[in-house]
Amino acid sequence: MNNKPKVGFYSFSGCEGDLLTILHCEDELLDIFSAVDIRSFRMASSERHDDENLDIAFIEGSITTNKHVKKLKVIRERSKIVVALGTCACYGGPQSARLGYNDWEERFKKVYGSAKLTVAKPFESQPLDEFIKVDYRIPGCPIDKYQFFYALTRLAKGMPVELTKFPVCAECKWNENECLLLKGQLCLGPITAGGCNSRCPNHGLPCIGCWGPTDEANVASEINLLKEKDFSAEEIINKLRLFGGAGMVRRFGELLGIKPKEEKTLSKTQGVSKKKREKK
Amino acid sequence: MKALKLKRDDLYTYLESLKSYGELWGPVAKGEKYVYARLTNVRDVALGALRTIIPPKKFFVPPRFTMFRYTDDHYAESFDDVKPRVLFGLHPCDIHGLLILDELFLERFPDPYYKRRRDATAIVGLSCIPDDKCMARSTNTHAVEGGFDLAFNELGNNYLVWIGSSLGDDLVRLNLDLFSEDIEPEDLKTYLAWRRKRDSRYKLSFDLTGMPDIMELSWDSPMWNELAEKCLACGSCSMVCPTCNCYNVRDVSDLTLNSGVRERHWDSCMNKEYALVAGGHNFREARAERLKLWYTHKLKAFITEYGKPSCVGCGRCIDTCPVDINVAEVIRGLTGQKVTL
Questions:
Q1: Of A97, A128, A162, which residue sits at a domain end?
Q2: Do A142 and A193 fall within a single domain?
Q3: Which of A162, A177, A194 lies at the terminal end of a domain, its last residue?
Q4: Can you give the residue ranges of the 4Fe-4S ferredoxin-type domain (chain B) (predicted)?
Q5: Chain mean pLDDT for chain B
Q6: Residue A135 sits in a domain of what CATH number?
Q7: Residue A269 confidence (pLDDT)
Q8: At what angle do helices B223-230 and B327-334 cross, to 10 degrees?
Q9: Residue A41 has pLDDT above 60, yes or no
Q10: pLDDT confidence of residue B194
Q11: Chain B partners within 8 Å of A224 (Cβ)
């Protein structure tokens, strides 16, 4: 009998770049498929087992419709561990760049006019944890395959996952890049989660924050610093929000000109799913 | 220590000769900065380089490296990247930085990964004229009396070459014809004049006597909170400091799940997780606490234990911190001088 962990890969709103990153691991694919029992991965196989319980669900993409919410909650019910894969799942991604401004309906009308929607009820893009409990977050746009392997092997062995906590600057120093902030560029390295091996600064491009903020991000100081370097408040805020999504808005909303909102019913959702799991 | 003379024009020829000992590394330009890189072409060496982005510690404790490879029942240490090497162009402050790392990694608990790399490496120093960020004279690390195999000192049209070890003697013999033993009275004059010129160029000057006392008295100084408000907690100061040496260790499993590697990578006490222990307690949750620890280590704890600060005055933190928190500013703040933050 097969006692390998049962794993499912799922995708909501996003470019599926994270799942594609995994599929692009040609040299490691056989090992990945040997390490775990993949029960669902629509980009890889049409064979799916969406009625079974899973040990680990890797979910990419943000949540944008009521149908998503329903599906997402079912996956949560079926899975012991849920891992948000990629920045969209973790923080909402670029489609959540205007989270908190409460102008979604206005924007929707601008693009779609008064078209009637029959398939699903859409809403402002949100990360997974707005609706379910997320056990681990592997950020990235897209994710880094080695960080994914690290998380996968740890989880497959039943161990907790500790991902990089320090910001991009650390690895950027390891790679001995000239500091782009000091050269006057709008670089988000100091406040952005590392683990990407400072990919952009390695190529002379400033960090755009695509892995979301670090736990310890000093966004206020970063904003002051960038203002001293003559960037406008608008430019800075747009950059912070591009990939920061809920990661920025929830923790640093006031700095971005957003009024603090009461914590959503996150704990409630968590409680419900936990209870239901226990019943089973 | 014996002194020889080498003609300036013969430097490149001699650098080429050093390659018969091992890989030759030295400072080269990277944009407007410098990094230690392999000198495949000896003429790439940046003789005017003052400070590299990362100090030479990277050769002995690389930012990340594999300690060993393991399987279910066996492990094998990895020293694949250890090979004979000559590091050329280390300035006195960086040599002092290595001497501090030696105390930590070779004395009470010798670290095999450090030792193997250190033993395989020849150190060739090079004199320098400080810029406005250097403060090695204040830390008394502006000259070297040891810690090198050879040390080159500017001397008009020549280099004065100090032999600091028997390996240094061997290195000279790789191309003995280039060196002369004719030290003349005039050379002493030139050397002294050069020393005066060097010493006159230090813009930063601090009296570090009694620093541990001052640190102790500043324990509750509001300065720490003020600095913490600006600090980005990016850890860059630790990465570029020649004496910061903290690391983290993690096991990275292969996807086959029955083998993998144990790797080490640089860590920093500026990272919040640094002082997090099992059970969830964090000894230095607040950024101010972490900043204070960093500077306490440099200017108090190390002095108390080793009789000298663990700042070698290289100026890298001054050059690196995006929000200008650095050893000079902190000393100014602690000693009641004007802080220019």
A1: A162
A2: no
A3: A162
A4: 220-252, 300-333
A5: 95
A6: 3.40.50.700
A7: 42
A8: 150
A9: yes
A10: 95
A11: 230
The CA distance from B73 to the nearest CA of chain A, in Å, is: 17
Which tokens go with A193?
């989660």
Partners of A214 on chain B (C-beta within 8 Å) are 233
Note whether B37 and B52 are within 8 A (CB). no
Residues of B with CB under 8 A from a CB of A: 30-33, 35, 52-54, 63-64, 229-236, 239-240, 250, 252-257, 260, 265-268, 271-273, 287, 320, 322-323
- Between CA B268 and CA B272 the distance in angstroms is 9
Facing residue for A169 by CB, picked from B30, B230, B236: B236
Reported ipTM: the value is 0.94
Q: Which of B86, B98, B107, B87 is nearest to B144 (CA)?
A: B98
Residues of B within 8 A of A149 (CB-CB) are 255
The reported pLDDT for the residue numbered A270 is 41
Averaged pLDDT for residues B60-83: 93
Residues A71 and A133 in one domain: yes
Average pLDDT over residues A148-162: 95
Number of structural domains chain A divides into: 2
Same domain, A130 and A191: no
SS3 state at B161: strand
Nearest CB to B232: which of A162, A174, A190?
A190
Answer whether residue A94 is part of any domain: yes
User: How high is the pLDDT of residue B341?
Assistant: 55
Domain-embedded: residue A173: yes
Q: Give A2's contacts (C-beta < 8 A, 6+ positions apart).
A: A37
Per-residue confidence (pLDDT) for residue B339, from 0 to 100: 65
**Domain extent at residue A101:** 6-162
Given this model, what pLDDT does residue B174 score? 97
Selecting from A149, A165, A221 the residue whose C-beta is nearest the C-beta of B323 gives A221
Tell me if B232 and A166 make a contact (CB, 8 A cut-off). no
Same domain, A188 and A98: no
Q: What span, in angstroms and rounded, lies between the C-alpha atoms of B140 and B152?
A: 19
